[in-house]
Amino acid sequence: MSGTARKVVQKALPRFRRLPTLFPNFDLRLLPLSEESAKQLETEGWCKEAVFRTRPNASKQEIRGILEGVYGLNVASVHTINYEGKKKEGRSGPYRRVDWKKAHVTFKKPE
């Protein structure tokens, strides 16, 4: 096939590319919904706010990117709080639980 014929065929045929598959290595756990959010989820099918637990070095932009890119949610705002791990006393002596971050995420109303 000549060069010009190849260009014509490439323009005529749509390019089917695989969509990128995201496998985020990102720990983002949903904490139990508040009574108000759970009630709204039952009646309207969506909730305005959810709370997530994640690693302490996660940024607001990373949390927003994961929720929008991987899960397809419309995020309005993200507010975060860092928590220090609790100090506990065990049989073998004192130990400390891991630090974590709580993220309050507000969603836009789906269209």
Helix content: 25-40%
Shape: flat
CATH-defined architecture: 2-Layer Sandwich
Largest sheet: 4 strands, antiparallel
Neighbour order of strands in the largest sheet: 1-2-6-3
CATH topology: Alpha-Beta Plaits
How is this structure best described in words?
With 111 residues, this protein is an alpha+beta fold. The chain is built from three helices and six strands; from the N terminus they run αβαβαββββ. The chain has helices at 3-12, 35-44, 60-69; strands at residues 28-30, 49-54, 75-83, 87-90, 93-96, 100-107. The strands form two sheets. Strands 1-2-6-3 form a four-stranded antiparallel beta sheet, covered by helices on one side. The chain has a two-stranded antiparallel ribbon with strand order 4-5. Strand 4 and strand 5 form a beta hairpin. The radius of gyration is 22 Å and the shape is flat. The N and C termini lie far apart (48 Å). Keywords: Ribonucleoprotein, Ribosomal protein. It comes from Tetraselmis sp. GSL018. Belongs to the universal ribosomal protein uL23 family.
